[in-house]
Specification:
This protein is mainly α. It has five helices and no strands.
């Protein structure tokens, strides 16, 4: 349960933003497979599959260009089959 009102996902005890190198060090301490980039990719993929538009996900991810967000749009084989069956 998050107890901070900070607008930052990763915040220090004062609610200020944590530098990206500090976040990477923390992630590296606990896992060599899960990284902030992997979480970002997961968020964007799930958000797109969940029905958010490319423009909405681009905004939430902080992308200045929607083409950057399109990289995350890699539908699974099951998702493609489901959509094809809907036609």
């Amino acid at each position: 349960m998050r107890e901070s009102d900070s607008p930052y996902l990763f915040a220090n005890s004062n609610g200020k933003v944590i530098h990206r190198s500090t976040v990477n060090k923390i992630f590296n301490k606990y896992s060599d497979k899960i990284t902030p980039h992997v979480l970002r990719h997961y968020f964007c993929t799930i958000a797109l599959e969940g029905g958010l538009s490319v423009h909405e996900v681009a905004y939430l991810a902080g992308h200045s260009n929607v083409h950057t967000t399109l990289i995350y749009l890699n539908p699974s084989r099951e998702a493609i089959k489901y959509k094809m069956n809907q036609l």
